[in-house]
Amino acid sequence: MQPESQVTESASGSDNQPGKDRLTRLRQEMVFLNTMGKRFVAALDRFQVHRALLATLQELYSFSACSILMRGPASYELSIIPRYPLSPPFLQEMFEKIARAASVIGFSHIDSEDLAIAAYLDAPDDLTPLDAAPHAPPTTIGDFLNIPLTVDNRIIGILSLFDEREQAFDTNLLQLTTMIADYAAVALENVRLRERETALWRAAEMERLRLERIISSMAEGMLITDQQGIVTSLNRSAQQLFSQVQISLEERSPSLSLRKLSNNGEIGWLSELADLIDYALDGHTVLNQELNAGVSGDSIPLTLSVSAAPLNEAGPVPTHPVGVVAVLNDITSSKQIEKLKDEFVSVVSHELRTPLTAIKGYTQHLMRRLERRLREKRQTTPADPQQKEPPESYDLRSLQIVQSQSEQLERLVNDLLDLSRAQWGEMNLQYSSFYLADALSERVQLAQVSAEEHAITLDIQVQDSRIIADKLRVGQVIGNILDNAIRFSPQGRQVKVELKEQNSDYLVSITDQGIGVSPEYIDHIFERFYRVRNTASRQYSGIGLGLFVARAIIEAHGGHIWVESNEGLGSTFSFTLPRAPHTTLLELS
Ligand code: ADP
After folding, report:
1. Residue 374 CB coordination number (10 Å)
2. Three-state secondary structure call for residue 14
3. What's the 344 CA to ligand 1 centre distance in angstroms?
4. Which residues pair with 435 in a beta bridge?
5. With a 6 A CB cut-off, is 419 part of the ligand 1 pocket?
6. What is the C-alpha to C-alpha distance for residues 165 and 159, in angstroms, rounded to an integer?
7. Regions of the chain where pLDDT drops below 50
8. What is the DSSP string of 308-340?
9. Which has the closest alpha carbon to 290: 328, 324, 333, 325?
10. Which residues contact 580 (CB under 8 A, 6 or more apart)?
11. Using one digit for the tens of pLDDT, what is the confidence trace for 279-319?
């Protein structure tokens, strides 16, 4: 395209010449704009924008170099696009002029030295034929032009043109140059947005890959389901866990329905897993739920600890879960160690029982002998208040201490023996028919003997308390709870035992007015070896097995046991027992 001034100068001649010239000029402008637009639209990166800019400007002017200064997110970026090699003094002068222009439009903290460091020389050698270049590189700037690059009335940079000749830039072309600068600004802004988007996408992709690697190298199995509970992805450890129980997920993934698989009856525990996942899909979190996933008959079957949590869509408003993430932990080996430990405790307890029986038996024998001897002495010797206590009575008191201590030791050994039975569900109940009211009354009387400070009351609110259960074991539970009620209410006071009916079951409640249990401990006191460790309970001895065994006994009967308590005011331990066991395979004695 010809510069505007030349077009205006040639606008004279025949009558219809002006109209014709205007048309030619308009067509030339249209072609120019169209070509320029296409160039900028096709530019995919900043270098292609530079090329498009250079190609367009070259059609208007002859110049030595152009530059683009852009404000980046943290600093400035300067691209120098020379049309032929430039000398250092020429470049230095360019930096100074750009720095000055930058401070005029309000780009702060830029000096020519910074620009010299930041400058990127993008020299497109294909644009200027060598013969068009000056023989020697120019050393001074004759004329220059600075045009702000604006997008949406926001200055994003400066376009500058430099030439060694004076008055090289025709001011008539300023409007057109500004238009070119606007095109270039939009193209550069688009490139910048695309670059930022690509960088964000790449960072997100890197993060995704990192997470994928972490999940796949996790020792725990992990699976993710959709909102129908269908497994959509799972890691390598989960695949291995499933393969241990003959589920090949290669065949069935990626859309494996645990529920469907469990309905086929192939693997029983899958329905339990599907239940946990359904529970999590309802918005609940499941923590460390044990699942017995092994083949029955194994001494220690594959045992999994499962945690599952609902997956919600990110956003401010809570949504219905769109899936579940579940973590499966193989705890078989710790179960194995636990079993070994329990077996060891069980063997040692058994071994302790034999000498204990002998100690108890001989102590009783000696006590009886001493009692007889004392009786005989009292009968043969007349009573004399001055006389000293006979040595037999001192011996008898010593033996009473030995006996009570060995009874305590026996209780401990029995608890330890029960521990492994309870742990492995081997309570072996001996069912018989008896009156629950009688069992309660026996235990109350026994407890009252050693609790002089306490008033133990028994309130039977049922007509007929006949039950089929293990009398010894039920008695053990009542004894344990009563023993605790007395031990943990040092101030004495009342202990109330009640028997009622609840639906078709019996309900036994034992209420004390002792130290109580604070809410943070209450969920744990039925766990094995659990003892509340606060100042109030520290003074009481025990190993934390009584309630664990009590729960195992009650649950083996098909009942429930629980506690309600107010710290400092007392506790009520309650349990239910069905009138008869649900199973028909009874061992009635
Ligand atoms: P142990 O009494 O041998 O420690 P238990 O299993 O019988 O073991 O009880 C566990 C814990 O529960 C006790 O250590 C005690 O902290 C708490 N506990 C049990 N019964 C009561 C009670 N009636 N009042 C207050 N705390 C109790």
Report:
1. 15
2. coil
3. 25
4. 466
5. no
6. 19
7. 1-13, 251-252, 584-589
8. EEEE--SSSS----SEEEEEEEE-HHHHHHHHH
9. 328
10. 467, 468
11. 999 999 999 998 887 665 556 678 899 999 999 887 777 77
Centroid of ligand 1 to alpha carbon of 531 (angstroms): 6
568 CA to middle of ligand 1, Å? 14
| Closest among 124, 199, 220, 115 to 160, alpha carbons compared | 115
Q: Are 258 and 243 in contact (CB under 8 A)?
A: no
Ligand 1 centre and the CA of 544: distance in Å? 7
| Alpha carbon distance 440, 450 (integer Å) | 16
Residues recorded for the chain: 589
Helix H or strand E encompassing 21: helix 17-42
pLDDT at residue number 378: 81
Please list the residues that pair with 78 across neighbouring strands: 69, 119
Say which residues have a Cβ less than 8 Å from residue 493's Cβ, sequence separation at least 6. Answer: 453, 454, 455, 512, 513, 514
What pTM was estimated for this model as a whole?
A: 0.54
- Number of the ligand 1 atom closest to the C-alpha atom of 512: 23
Site to probe by mutation for ligand 1, drawn from 454, 476, 488 as the one with most ligand atoms within 8 Å of Cβ, is: 488
Q: State the average pLDDT for the chain.
A: 85
Of 517, 524, 538, 541, the one to substitute when testing ligand 1's pocket (max ligand atoms within 8 A of C-beta) is 517
Report whether residue 79 contacts ligand 1, using a CB cutoff of 6 Å.
Answer: no
Backbone φ/ψ region at 527: left (φ over 0), alpha (ψ -120 to 50), beta: beta
Q: Is the CB of 546 under 6 A from ligand 1?
A: yes
* Ligand 1 pocket mutation pick from 495, 525, 540 by most atoms within 8 angstroms of CB: 525
Which protein residue has the closest C-alpha to ligand 1 atom 3?
A: 542
CB of 517 closer than 6 angstroms to any ligand 1 atom: yes
Residues 6 or more apart from 136 whose CB is under 8 A from it?
A: none
